[in-house]
Amino acid sequence: MIIKAVIFDLDGTLIDSMSLWRRVDCEFLGSRNIPVPADLFAHLPAGNSFIQTAQYFKDRFLLPDSVESIMQEWTDMVRHHYETDIELKNGVRELIHLLSAKGIKIGLGTSNSYELAEKVLSQNGIWHYFQTAVTGDMEVLGKPFPDIYLRVADNLHVLPGECIVIEDTLSGVRAGKSAGMTVLAIYDQDSEPEMENIKSAADHFFYDYVALSNTLEREYLDGK
Question: Confidence band (pLDDT; 50, 70, 90) for 46?
Fold first, then answer.
């Protein structure tokens, strides 16, 4: 297999941020006196992009807010953290440097917004390594549909079979596999309820970036 590109998810994959988004859910609904249901995302109908998730909240909770205003409110709630204190997962920086040194194209495929992706990766000093970013505030079907990852591959001018996706969620793993890409899953605490399904769906599963990077270099980048 010849790998020409590695495509990363953002939240839970590159950065430790999922607990922040759980707080956003609580604060957003709490400000409207709506309790957070235990099955909050169990009925998400199709796709989890920023736009689709905002539409889901609007429809499920009969909110008068526009989809645009919901997205803006979420962005306003987390912007400071993405600009200042959300950190990369251990080993991410080293892997990005390795891929760059070997001439591997690097892309981002996230359900989050472009603004927040740019802010958090810029403040962590790695935004400039990403040659394209397809985000959930663009007109594209969200994960588990393959569209985000297929668009990243197209932007990078590589075939899906020449791409590795790194993901932490079941919907993301399924999106990568549906796109015809090799998927390496990385552990994130927020995804523990789906852990066994993630392990079954991904080509490889890792608990840390040291093991992931070693396997990636040995099995997919050898000779580069």
Answer: low
